[in-house]
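Team,

Forwarding the record for the chain on the shared tracking sheet. I've put the sequence and predicted structure together so nobody has to dig through attachments.
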Amino acid sequence: MNIIQELEREQMDAVLAKRGIPEFSPGDTVKVMVRVIEVADDPKDKKKKAAEPKVTERMQAYEGVVIARSGAGLNETFTVRKISYGEGVERVFPIYSPYIAEIDVVRRGKVRRAKLYYLRGRRGKAARIVERTDARARRLNAAWKGFKKPKGEADDLTQINGITADIALRLKQLNCYKFEQVANFSDDDIANVDETLNLKGAIEKQDWIGQAQRLMAESTAGEVPAEEGQG
C-alpha cells in the first residue's frame, strides 16, 4: 500500500468512526441526511467587520432512488434522483463526505442494471421500481439497528476511556446512552456495536464493560447515605 492509499484509508476510517455506511445499490430508495452550514452575516452592519459571523448547522433530508454508484475507495460516489414539483432532480453524493450525517435505506428495489439512467425519460408508473423481497433483502432489512430505548437520563459515556464525543453520539443513535447498558453488553452486543461503529475491537481492547461497571459502582457508592453516628 503506497502513501496515497494510506492517507485515503485514514480519511475513510475517520468518517466511518462517526457514521456507518449501509449496504445499498442502484434501485434502492435512500434518505440522506445532509449537514447544511449557514453563516448569518448582516451586510449593512459594516462597523462589526472584525466580529465573527454567526455559524449555524442544520440537517436537510434528501430522499430518492439511487440510480448509480461510481468510483471506488475515498472517491466513490452515488447519484440519487427524486421528483420535486413534477421535475426530476438529481444529486451526486460522495460516500465518505463529512457533510453526510446519515444514510438510511428506506426501500430496496429489484433491478437488472447497474446504471438506471433510463429513469430520466420515464414518468409516473413507468418510473416505478419493484420492491426487492428475496432472502438477501430480508437479511439486510433485518440487520441490527440498535437497542431498545432505556428509561432515565443519559450518562456521560465519554467518561469511559475510548469513547469520544463522536462515538458517544453514535451510540445514542443506537439507543445506548447509559453505563448500565455498556456494563451488560453480551457477546452479540459487542459484535453488533463493533461492526456498526467500525470500532475494530475497541470495546474489548479498552475494556468498556469493566470501566462501565466501575463507574456504576462509584455512582452507587456516592448515593449511599452516611450512617448516623452512634449516640
